[in-house]
Amino acid sequence: MKSLPTIDFGHTSFDSAFERRDVYGIKTDLERSAKRRLNIGVVGCGGVAQAKWLPAIRYLQTRSEPVDIAGFVDPDAGAAEKVARLYGARRYPSLADLLAGQRLDLVMVLAPDREHAPIARQAIAAGVATLVEKPLARSLADASALADFAEERAILLGSVANKRFSPPYALAKLLIDNGCLKTAPSVFEGKFTLGYPYVDILESGTIHLLDIALWCMGPVARVSATGVVSADGRLESAIAMLNFQSGAIGSIVTSAAALSFKPWERVEIIGRNAMLTVDDQFELTLADDECGPSRTWRPVIPNTLMFDESFGGYPGLLENMFDAIRGLVPLGATGRDGVSAVALVAAIRQSIERSEWVSLHQASGGPRIISS
Q1: Which helix (H) or strand (E) holds 363?
Q2: DSSP code of residue 218
Q3: Full residue range of the structural domain in which residue 235 is found
């Protein structure tokens, strides 16, 4: 096994805290500030925009990231005017008006799910890189068509997979790539519960865990799922068995009938006599010796350096998107990644409805669902 990788796990770096004496990380970063300045348009000013993405942008700006918010669009004039005032930008009545009035480098699509694909298509048609909240689209056909559209026009399309940039999951992936499981991962077990009665359990929550499974384990070949449907016709709980193309296996348990403020997420990834566990997107444990100690990573709380959105992966995903637009790094969560997650959601739903295994064929344009 290679040496263990290092990661700040949400905290400031040793170099910043002790050598540069910049414990809050707010001194001017000459290397970062020298990057090409970007203009961002934001479509959708609801909860996720105000609570996560806009604070994450401000967090990066405070750390010398050269980005500006050029304008906001939302049919709720009050919400749009509020954020426009707070962030020193203009409110525009539509994306078309924003595109006509500003030179944009990125459009962030934070609107309701049903509007993701048409808004993103409008931005891509205007030649602007686009980042779309999950799910990329409500249907696999729309998600695939959107990714095709972006590729045909050579426009960058990013999907929101912020857990990839959250310290526990980022470190877990580093450990897997580092060989700490002794073999390629062979088993994935995930649990996700959410008690909010007003969201779809798969598209609005579990899709994040499905993306982590795809990221760590590779493409899924077959799915078998069963579920509980509530009286109003909504999927309330589901169990999905996954066969990965690599030969690995996995399972996902998810439920909207559980609690939201109690333990709600757990991932176990098994190799050969070694296992990684991530609890509640907070604590990571590596057990790789029957007799030796397990190793655990967790944030130090209270910690004046901790930032909720940073630990959630939002600034990390944005920074990657910004640098991908500048041509400095590959995109860490692509539109095709978003298509794969939507395809897995669709396969789970189809398997539940038909009580049969569903196969996912990996075609050149992305996964296609084939009934077994």
Answers
A1: strand 358-363
A2: -
A3: 163-311+332-371
